Amino acid sequence: MERILVVGVTGAGKSTLAQAVGERLDVPYHEMDALYFTGPDWAVNDRLTEAVSSVAAEPRWIIDSMGYPEVRDLLWGRADTVLWLDYGKRVVMPRVLRRSLRRSVTREPVFGGNKETWAGWLSKEHPVWWAWSQHAGRRHEIARRTGDPRFAPLHTLRFSHPDETAAWLASL
Q1: DSSP 8-state assignment for residue 164
Q2: 33-52 pLDDT, tens per residue?
Q3: Is the pTM of this model over 0.85?
């Protein structure tokens, strides 16, 4: 495990797992949303492909995403391992709700110095609504990719419950 993608739906715990695995294996961790959102008002990095290409060219890395569409194939083509947090809505939704509530209350800065706001909850792009509406589609896309012959060399570990993930992590 040298070049690792941690994939799953919004709120599954990708960043948390990626950080923990990165620390245990001494693999540099890169937060995809921090590469994607680079400024206030959720400004998108117009050099995303360049930034991700630079990371992907490194011999060792761990990224907490399947990748935004413009860099997805690049990452999947370079990775050697996929850790798939394939959790149901019963697991994911309470997590994303707690995280968004905390961020809205504390005004905790996230990617590019942005903050989740109460008004943001009305947007279809808000993490809670996104997690709900994209859950099935994201799971389908990950299943399709892990079964794609182009990515057959990838070692894929699929976890269907947080207890499985925790046991695996403890075994590292």
Answers
A1: H
A2: 999 988 888 888 999 999 99
A3: yes
pLDDT tens digit sequence for 113-141: 778 888 878 888 888 898 999 999 999 99
Q: Read off the CATH number of the domain in which 37 is found.
A: 3.40.50.300
The pLDDT tens digits for 154-165 are 999 999 999 999
Backbone φ, ψ for residue 61 (5° rounding): -165, 160
**Domain count of the chain?**
1
Residue 151's domain comprises 3-171
Torsion of CA 45, 49, 53, 54, to 10 degrees: -30
113 and 37 Cβ atoms separated by less than 8 Å: no
Contact 45, 51 (CB under 8 A): yes
22 CB-near residues (< 8 Å, 6+ apart): 28, 29, 62
Query: 122-156 burial, b if ≥16 CB within 10 A, otherwise e?
Result: eeeebbbbbbbeebeebbeebeebbeeeebeebeb
Give the alpha-carbon dihedral of 116, 72, 22, 95, to 10 degrees: 40
